[in-house]
Amino acid sequence: MAEENAPQRFFVEFDVDEACPIGFLEDPSIVLFFQSWAFSARMGGQHELAQAANHLTQRLKVDLKPIYRYADRDVETPQDAQELERSWQAASELAICARAVADAWEAPDETLAPLVSGYEHLAPRLRELAAMCDWGEARGARVRMSFDLRDDRAPGRALSRPS
């Protein structure tokens, strides 16, 4: 279970009124960490997770677009609000992406193996994310991933659902 005193940084929510009964068994921040480095690969990032993302897309043909679709919950401008709203996506697409990355992570080829060493805890979090998305898909829900890196945020603050 994720540590109780640690602030929650990564959020997964669905656009239905029912709460998802599936959660992360450990801190999901590794997913945000991977997303950030994977996104940086598109701009020449050289971190091993950026290189792993390049390998996933270029050599293994994994479509990472769903994992790149996330936004900051700290809405300060109308553009921030629009970006957060644009981060909703089909749960099925994110589930497929999360499973594909987890599969590659759990059985890495010779190029991927040294890049993912030390990040083995990503695959279980991605499998949990995929299970959440399966739950959402069964309800016709869209999913949104977001993050909040502020230290001064009020605990338990909820965002409004899309209209």
Can you walk me through this structure?
The chain contains seven helices and four strands, in the order E-H-H-H-E-H-E-H-H-H-E. Helix 5 (91-106) runs antiparallel to helix 7 (122-138). The longest helix is centred in the C-terminal third of the chain and has 17 residues, at 122-138. The protein is α+β, with helices and mostly antiparallel strands. Mean pLDDT is 89; it is low at 153-163. It has one domain (10-147).
Estimated share of beta-strand residues: 5-15%
What Rg do the Cα atoms give? 16 Å
Shape: globular
What portion of residues is helical? 40-55%
Total number of beta strands = 4
Mean pLDDT: 89
Number of helices: 7
Main sheet, how many strands, which sense, barrel?
4 strands, mixed
Order of helices and strands: EHHHEHEHHHE
Distance between the termini: 33 Å
Question: What attributes does this structure have?
Answer:
alpha+beta, 7 helices, 10% strand, 163 residues, 4 strands, disordered C terminus, single chain
What is the strand and helix layout of this fold?
Blueprint: E1 10-14, H1 29-41, H2 48-58, H3 65-68, E2 70-72, H4 78-86, E3 89-90, H5 91-106, H6 112-116, H7 122-138, E4 142-147
Parallel strand pairs: 2-4
Antiparallel strand pairs: 1-4, 3-4
Helix pairs in contact: 1-2, 5-7
Q: What's the short version?
A:
The chain is of the alpha+beta class and 163 residues long. The chain has helices at 29-41, 48-58, 65-68, 78-86, 91-106, 112-116, 122-138; strands at residues 10-14, 70-72, 89-90, 142-147. Helix content is 46%, strand content 10%.
